[in-house]
Amino acid sequence: MRKICLCSTPLCTLIIAVIGIAISTVHGASPHRILLDTDVDTDDFFAILYLLKLNRSEFHFQAITVNTNSWTNAGHAVNQIYDILYMMGRDDIAVGVGGEGGISENGTILPNVGGYLPIIDQGRGTAGPCRYRQAIPIGSGGRLDIDANFGLRRSFLPQGRRRYSPLRQPTTQQVLIKTISEGPISVFTTGVHTNFALFLMSNPHLKKNIEHIYIMGGGVRSKNPTGCCPKNSSSSCQPQQCGDHGNMFTAFRSNPYAEFNFFSDPFAAYQVIHSGIPVTLVPLDATNTIPITQQFFEMFEKNQDTYEAQYIFKSLKMARDTWFDDQFFTSYFMWDSFMSGVATSSMRNTDKENLENEFAEMEYINITVITSNEPYGISDGSNALFDGHKIPKFDLRKNGVHSGHVQTGIHDPFCFRGNGTGICKDGYTEEISGPDSVRVRVATRAKPNRDNTSTLDREYYVGFLDVINRPQQRGRFNFTSEFPYYKEVFYKPDFNGKKLGKSVVFDMDMSVGDFLALIYLLKVPVEEINLKAILVTGTGWANAATIDVVYDVLHMMGRDDIAVGLGDSFDLNQFYPNHSNIGDCKYSEAIPHGSGGRLDSDTLYGLARDLPRSPRRYTAENSIDFGAPRNTDFPQLRQPLALEVWKSVVESIDHGSKITILTNGPLTNLANILLSDTNASSIIQEVFILGGHIEYMNNKEKGNVINIPSNEYAELNMFLDPLAAKTVFDSSLNITLIPLHMQRKLNAFPEIIKRLGKKNTTPEALFAQRLLKRLHSLQQKHHAYRNMDAFLGEILGAIIFSGDKKPLNSTFQVEHLRVIAEGRTQEDGQVIVDTRKTKGFKVLEDFNIVSCYNIFAEHLDSREQSAIIGSFDEQKRLWSSP
């Protein structure tokens, strides 16, 4: 092979820089401006780092916008982008994510649509269905691993000052408009097209500034090389995706034609392809010819001379080590990084023959994007652009190509023939002729290495390794090398000589109120409460990767001894058969993705990065002992599951002892415990449940499932997993209920903020005060935050659960209740009186509100069981000096 450039001396760096400037000057051209719209999947940041390494006299990488309806979740994705840019010394690059705008019923696109939903399902908010996104796995091997980058993001990337902050974060559309308005630019898209399509539809006057669009996605003449039976296999081998145009390994039985980026919003992809702007497409046709081969992998392992090379290789290795079968080297391709190489090669050759490219063979092909299925002009409830509208949205033609059946999910019955063959084509980049076709420059295959003696048989393999290992514009440091005295420390308390209180498990969905409750529980004397474990679920307000914030809170409080178990990401019976990582969002679609929803929960309203960094974190490390196909390098770091942590807690308590549980979210984890452990009811002393709404029976007070208007009387924790709630309510457990109308009494932000404002208070009290001040301020500034006081009420369960009844003056009454779980969203999750009086529940009837505020503040202000290390800034100071 040609030798990879490893030049590292200052003189060499200077020479290369001068040559680059000279070339640019000779040609008299300004650097090519680039904006990247990305879903921040693993291969996306390979592309980002590749672009950051290119000569700045040739390419001016100006802005990044984040897809929020694909492989990552907004809060985790944007902060990873900020960390990559900080490592690379590029805090000048603008970053846009989200936005609270919507699309009206008549098709008017309002400012700052966040792209959380495909255009067809976009209403006025950020909550909504997952017709396309359900094809993407949620847990391990899917969004959880991508959000955390297998756990490598927090262990490797340094953390700078930039971070998501509510109402201060530039939105996607703001960054697109500002960057494109400034002059000629090329746009790269390596994810779903929602953001860019909305921009084009709303700002047609700015199209003139876009010189070219480079797209990774689609499959024109592609034939999937994965899922094929080996040549000498037995007749029992059943081919899977083998030969399909598309690559959707979770949905090929209903749609064998589409590629993930185009399927996730076909209408958006159509708008981009048909925009009239020149397009270069790097589809599966080309990327299928450039897999991560074993030879490339081994060569990369030997060439990691920069921090960015190390980060990419570590990520690639974890992808390989956690791959579901033994076909990684023929199944994982250089998707987005290859597109970046092809695009920048084309841009270098703009003054030459149009099809000349260093890395790919190119061809012009007439294509379109299929957005609906024939017959056209039908109205079957699947197509929100037409159904129920006298005039279709966006003035679409009534019997045109967009007017057919639109796939409603990966198990849409319309998409299956009688023999089980999939017929839906939503997202298919079909080669056609005629008036609806667009002439597009298409990469058809990766070029072979010009050096035929090399073990690397593709030209781009060599180019990629050369660029990513260049000493120019290299990363400055990683998380540990930034600090000369970095040291990983675990804090565990010494309880010798203390008589520990009742054994407690806290079950949370990681909403902001849950974190306030957790800090409070950690302040209650251990002689009263022995918090043994925390169970988290991704079925509520936060995504599963937010478990890292739980670890950080525990580290701050010196409680790295407390086990944290990760629960299911789906409600009971909501995942699809034969694939526990794929399912519907029938109930979870009630939670907003944007402001006041998962974006803010995942980042703790922008304050999570102020917490000290725990040495514990989610990782995708795994072991064959737990069913993994192979051991990773550090299987001992594997993230324990909720049921495993429950089992360990049961085994740790003394014979005859029992466990008390406090639940602050959906009852998924508790229901799974009951269903998997037949002895659980005899081990559980009592369960305190924050949730349920029963007062409406008398005064018609509404529930809080505000994004499902048809369900007026349910409370979210019950609604988000009604079958789990029914399972728990129907059990023999001794249950105390803290219902919604009691939580609503705690709604005075100023009262609790004032009580936390003492001088010389504790770090945890200061953090809680900052968090509450932020919630209160946001509530006053923007309609998306109008319900922030609901999270204040979430501390009530912890206080009632642990508090002295005398100052609280809490009273209870016994009521006979049941939960509706019939599969109808208009009534599921409602708690009603059980006229059969099958089971009685102790229900909180009243309490002293002022005492509740006082108790919370007094515990957090106490110096007992206070924070060991107060913030990330304090950690940095410790790591920066001996």
From TrEMBL:
Residues 34-371, 504-844 form the Inosine/uridine-preferring nucleoside hydrolase domain. Keywords: Signal. It comes from the Eukaryota. InterPro entries: Inosine/uridine_hydrolase_dom (IPR001910), Ribo_hydro-like (IPR036452). SUPFAM superfamilies: Nucleoside hydrolase. One of its GO terms (molecular function) is hydrolase activity, hydrolyzing N-glycosyl compounds. Residues 1-28 form the signal peptide. The keyword Lyase does not apply. Belongs to the IUNH family. This is Inosine/uridine-preferring nucleoside hydrolase domain-containing protein. It comes from Lactuca sativa (Garden lettuce).
